[in-house]
TrEMBL record:
Transmembrane segments: none
Molecular function GO labels: isomerase activity
Any Pfam family hit: AP_endonuc_2
Keywords assigned by UniProt, alphabetized: Isomerase
Domain of life according to the entry: Bacteria
Protein name: Sugar phosphate isomerase/epimerase
InterPro entries to which the protein is assigned, alphabetical: IolE/XylAMocC-like, Xyl_isomerase-like_sf, Xyl_isomerase-like_TIM-brl
Length: 374
């Protein structure tokens, strides 16, 4: 989906396909027909944006095969689908029965992470619509916070230098600008805006910046205006925004039905209390209120006393698009947790999941439109 900012900038809105399990090219094309095409039809949109997730083996194969990339681009075009952004955070196996901390490996101290990210950039250069100003790839915020020391930090710095060089080479060969966005996340080396400023200062900001995930921002108990001001003052661009909402409550006991085995659900309170998973938060006796890293559908509200961080999402969108120009032009709805919601909230069919994602995109489109008019 596309929107035009009053200043003339084209904004791209997509949904992230890491909610789907396919990890082969054939499977990915199949899920375009099963999910993406019905979502586009439900929205009545000529074009539907995908925040495409490609597991590392698929990315590597496509990066080596120009004809395969052209063929995949044709599959997208005939379905009215476009890709300006890729989710390069999960390396593989993101919808396995248990993911937890495995999603942070390999990290930015390894050549595997560098190779995967450059593979994605090479693929994206051939998938970009002709009128897209640039492409973006989101990635993890360097690493999980343990273990982390000066030696690992120095290695990561070298990897980021090599990444910027590789992106410059892709631009020189293809004429396409691809930027990589590091996504602050609870529990990681970069969790907060202050950490992003401290650890990304000195990078090539023409190529590298941040991915602002609005659920993660909420779990850090940060205010959008202050976070964006700090990034602007540091000269660190917002390359991509993940439109997401976290769970919130002042009665933590109501969250017990959200404990599940697949993903980490880091839990935070406004006093700086921090626990790495929801079941551990119950065991720790962490005082409320809690915000929980559990991406929930944008358009719906859980039963009281639970709520979501949708008000922060709205405030952030206002800051991002409400000024004389948009701070960012890539917005990706990332609710990858549909399959682990409590059973009564969980889609039971592909059609129900398509309905839910379409409703989220309609919500996000409406909020972006209101933000631009404010």
């Amino acid at each position: 989906m596309r929107l035009r900012h009053p200043a003339g900038r084209l904004l791209h809105l997509s949904y992230c396909t890491n909610v789907h399990p396919a990890e082969s090219l054939e499977g990915i094309v199949g899920q375009l027909d099963e999910y993406a095409l019905p979502i586009r039809e439900r929205l009545g949109s000529d074009v539907l944006g995908l925040g495409l997730w490609l597991a590392a083996p698929v990315a590597a194969a496509l990066a080596l095969d120009a004809e395969a990339r052209k063929g995949f681009r044709r599959e997208l075009d005939v379905r009215g689908l476009e890709v300006v952004t890729l989710n390069g955070f999960p390396y593989s196996s993101f919808q396995d029965p248990v993911v937890k901390q495995a999603v942070y490996h390999p990290d930015w101290t390894t050549p595997e992470r560098l190779r995967y990210t450059l593979d994605l950039a090479r693929v994206l250069a051939d998938l970009l619509p002709d009128d897209a100003a640039r492409g973006s790839v989101s990635t993890l915020p360097l690493a999980w916070r343990h273990p982390w020391d000066d030696a690992r930090a120095a290695t990561a710095t070298r990897m980021l230098d090599l990444l910027a060089t590789g992106l410059a080479d892709i631009e020189a060969r293809t004429g396409k600008v691809i930027q990589v966005a590091f996504e602050p996340e609870p529990g990681c080396v970069i969790e907060t805006t202050a950490q992003a400023v401290a650890l990304l200062s000195g990078v090539d900001t023409d190529r590298l910046g941040v991915c602002l995930d609005l659920a993660h921002l909420a779990c850090a108990w940060e205010e959008p205006a202050e976070a964006l001001r700090a990034l602007k003052e540091a000269g660190i661009p917002v390359v991509k925004v993940q439109v997401s909402a976290a769970l919130e409550t002042d009665k933590p006991g109501a969250l017990r039905e959200y404990v599940e085995p697949r993903f980490l659900h880091q839990t935070r309170n406004p006093e700086g209390g921090a626990v790495d998973d929801l079941d551990e938060a119950f065991e720790s006796g962490l005082p409320g209120p809690w915000r929980v890293h559990y991406h929930v559908p944008l358009h719906s509200r859980p039963s009281a006393p639970l709520t979501t961080t949708a008000p922060l999402l709205r405030a952030a969108i206002g800051e991002l698009v409400g000024g004389p120009d948009a701070v960012c032009d890539h917005f990706d709805v990332e609710t990858y947790t549909w399959g682990v919601l409590p059973p009564e909230q969980r889609p039971q069919t592909a059609g129900q999941l398509a309905d839910g994602i379409a409703a989220e995109l309609a919500f996000a489109h409406a909020e972006l439109s209101k933000g631009m008019r404010a």
